[in-house]
Amino acid sequence: MTDTLLEVTDLKTHFFTERGVVRAVDGISFDVRPGEIVGLVGESGAGKSVATTSIMRLVDDPGQIVSGEIEFAGSTIVGFDEADGELVPREEMLSNADMRRQIRGNEIAIIFQDPMESLNPVYSVGAQVREFIELNRDLSGGEATEEAIEMLRRVGIPEAEDRYDEYPHQFSGGMRQRVLIAMALGCRPRLIIADEPTTALDVTVEGQILELVRDLQAEFDTSFVWVTHDMGVVAELCDRVNVMYLGKIVEQGPIDDIFYNTKHPYTEALLSSIPRPDRTVAELDPIEGTMPSARNPPRGCRFHPRCPDAREACTRIDPEFYDVSDGAGVQYSACIKHADVGYWDSEPFDGQRLEQPP
Amino acid sequence: MSSTIDHLEDVALGDTLLEARGVTKYFTSDSGMLAGLFGAQDVEAVDDVSFELLKGETFALVGESGCGKSTLARTILQLIEPTSGSIRFKGLELTETSNRQLRPVRRDMQIILQDPQASLNPRMKVGQIIEEPMKAHSLYGRADRRERAKELLDLVELDRSYYNRYPHEFSGGQRQRINLARAMSTDPDLIVCDEPVSALDVSVQAQILNTMRELQAEFGFTYLIISHDLSVVRYIADRVAVMYLGHIVELASKEALFEHTKHPYTSALLEAIPIPDPRSRDTRQPLEGDVPSPIDPPSGCRFRTRCPELIQPAGWALTEQEWDAVRSFVRGVKRRSFTLDETPGSDTSHTPSAVETAVDDAYFPEGRPSRVDDIVREACALIADDEWDEAKAVIESRIVEESICAQERPRYTVSTREDVPEANHFVGCHLYRDGAKDVSPARDGGTHRGRGGNALE
């Protein structure tokens, strides 16, 4: 209880559209401990961003958190009770006003991919950082100004005092992203959710930001949920990783195990499909096909139509999260290879690679 | 009527298909109403760049946003008219050919753009889209075009039945395949691919890259790939040119560039890429600062303002440690990153000697090298009066601009393998001025042949 900051259990967020229900997030569980950087990695459409907006309770219509629990440092962000066969929000669940006043900004801050959309173009950068700090911490105007300048300097804005009065358009993309980090950290939150914050940046700028985040994280001991599609960024930054595919977490574990002791065919396929900057790869192994729609996900294991290891059983059995720990930490995989439910006796499809049971 | 296309030479695999020499493109901002008031400023997007493309190879232009790679590629295709320079395609000088005469030549060079959504007309069926270039160049009859479009769908691994579908029914990867089929339809020699996979998910990227390779092996296409992603380049390219602020700073075969990196910018770029391997995490020194404006780019080597290896002025004879200290001092003043004992926001000025003490403590604990003693004193006096900009100017003119890096544009070739003379490696960095062949003269500016690569083997 004590060493978990954020705990997400069986969260489901669905979108009720005219063309059917989109199960964008369909039963995911993960946790974040204090001072930890946890990765949420997957391709577009995996449900990463919906998961994070659910944590902030910022899911837009027609989306709705339909079930599950989110606990943050003793407060209930999402919780349900069953009454007459229906799920109703539990009493201790934070109200919208509580979320706004207590959680967003000062307990959990979020950084988005496009800094231009998060900054107001008609206010100076400094004023926006100061306002954010003023709202979320008990500081007077003057103190907040000083703190804002200090934070801008800390995130590496040169001549912070002079640039305090400049406007967002006068900053480069990397500098704007630094401003957002300054804003987020300035409020001393316990958790920062970073949603692809470096994806739109050039690689040298991305390098600068990752370095900065690592330094600041060590200093402030802030926890991070880092959302990305880039396995390189994950390897560089994260302590633990959750790999998402089509609304589910398929594998979860310590960073080293995810890369070196991979237990889910999707993670494996993802890793062998990426070109490497550090060595020349003769032939990449792409994942066949494309990710199906979350409106009508495949039955059984959602990855089975593209999985090189799929067998007949995979089309029937909806995999649970199996404990596959044998490395340094706790590792889970949602693949029925790791359970005694008949995978090894089941018929492989034509042309599939044939693996022997362990 | 003789068409220009009759004058094109046939090029064998491995021979020069396209040769760009001294290509320069300045954009002028003098067209606006206010330009007269403020004076026209040129944006030096591409400045005196030379390279050649060999038939059947994959040549990559890499660099960060704003480095001029897309402008260069568009200039090569004559979609933008160059300010100066020569572009020869199959022996024809494109810059001296009128648009009308150029038209038939265009079927030999096609382009694929980054955004597969935006580059397909949503109102046209896939078949029409693929047939359009053939129609524009009056190739084949109606029925043959139709048959060819279906064959092309086969080749890019799409179903023939997609012929009658609309682009919106397809995923990003499939759309990029349609683009590929369209580009191939006129059987071109050169296909320029501007960030062909950067809008796609990683698993789909690999599918497209593999298809592109297979098609090249079969039809001998020459690809000019523009990309910011060095991982993709390492997978698909035979030769690579790295651009920074309108200049090519390094050009070599892929192996030489990645394994024997020469230019400090290329090294910084390579070091910055996050490697998908948690066991190779290390503390790297990220590149400082931002790319300067192309309106008034730095003199000499354009990377020198951020370069960790700025060369000391000739005749200074400082030890490495001394020069390191001077360089940190230069950086400190430029970024105002050293703080004097003061409360932020207050305007208390300092005595010059207090500033000197602070500077000595921060940068010259071993004592100031006598060569820079008076320069440091002068800068400190200005800083004491809060005249930071003047202090920067003093440092710029008396230290930085004395360096060869600020005085001459570096262009050298070094041979990485003595036994293979064409394995030359072009480096735009003065660190390689000794023992290298200077290729500065504008007529011979940095064109090098590397090995043709997999399509030739």
Low-confidence stretches of chain B: 342-347, 441-457
Q: What's the helical proportion of residues of chain A?
A: 25-40%
**CATH superfamily grouping of chain A:** P-loop containing nucleotide triphosphate hydrolases
* Mean pLDDT rating of chain B: 86
Q: Can you tell me the CATH class of chain A?
A: Alpha Beta
What does the largest sheet of chain A look like?
Answer: 8 strands, mixed
* Helix and strand pattern of chain A: EEEHEEEEHEHHHHHEHEHEEHHEE
Largest interface (C-beta under 8 Å): A-B, 54 and 50 residues
Count of DSSP strands of chain B: 13
The quaternary organization reads as heterodimer
List the helices and strands and how they pair.
The complex is a heterodimer of chains A (358) and B (457).
Chain A: E1 6-17, E2 20-32, E3 37-41, H1 48-55, E4 63-72, E5 75-78, E6 80-83, E7 86-89, H2 96-103, E8 108-111, H3 115-118, H4 125-136, H5 141-154, H6 160-163, H7 173-186, E9 191-195, H8 203-220, E10 223-228, H9 231-237, E11 240-245, E12 248-254, H10 255-260, H11 265-273, E13 322-323, E14 332-333
Parallel strand pairs in A: 3-10, 3-11, 8-9, 9-10
Antiparallel strand pairs in A: 1-2, 1-4, 4-5, 6-7, 11-12, 12-14, 13-14
Chain B: E1 16-28, H1 35-38, E2 42-54, E3 58-62, H2 69-76, E4 84-89, E5 92-93, H3 99-102, E6 109-112, H4 126-136, H5 142-155, H6 172-184, E7 190-194, H7 202-219, E8 222-227, H8 230-236, E9 239-244, E10 247-253, H9 254-259, H10 264-272, H11 320-335, H12 352-363, H13 370-384, H14 388-398, H15 404-407, E11 412-415, E12 424-427, E13 437-438
Parallel strand pairs in B: 3-8, 3-9, 6-7, 7-8
Antiparallel strand pairs in B: 1-2, 1-4, 4-5, 9-10, 10-12, 11-12, 11-13
Helix pairs in contact in B: 4-5, 4-6, 5-6, 6-7, 12-13, 13-14
